[in-house]
Amino acid sequence: MKLVTLVKKLKSNLRNQRLHGYLLKTGKLLQQIPIGKYIINTTEKKIALIENEQKDLVEYLTKLFDENSIQNKNKIDQLKNSYTYLIYSDKNMLLKNLNNTLNNLNRLNNQKYGFPEKLYSKMQHEIEKSHKQIKYVEEYNSKFINNEKSAYKSLWRKSSFELDDEQLTAIVTDDKHNLVVAGAGSGKTEVLITRIAYLVRREHSAVNTERILALAFQRKAAGEVSD
Known about the structure:
8 helices; rod-shaped; 73% helix; mainly alpha
């Protein structure tokens, strides 16, 4: 059952509960006559059915929360254990899923559907957790880049000149497509050479040299890369 359908059903049940509550009061006012007893009996049975269905819906909703929470946690744990840069497409997809979860939780939390207090507490916990997960994903690449800069300081020192922070960022950024724009004499070739060394020597997900193709448009630069 989709969340939208589930919410509509919950709201419909609450309306029916209120309506049959009014009918039950009417029946009690008329309980001295046969029609009153009939209203009480039929209404009480209907209320019991609605309450049971509402209970099942709440249990189903709780199950959805749990399943979704586990899925998101597994994705975050997988990211934490990957030790790799989070490429643009994967980051967008992960953030989309996490934001969808958060939006659904907020939509439910902002409406009063007569949920048990335990379920409201669970929603608050999941909302807080979703915010933390979204923040973690948004900041992941920045932290990864800073960690890599620090971890491979010995490699940066082997460069023919001191690399600045932007150059180091270009070296360790590992998206599917990296565009690095720089002027003449700014060290593009040295950045390329150092990036190749980084890809080959990095501890996690090292790249085989046979899978690397480096192109240069000047013989001098091509010679530096070859060396």
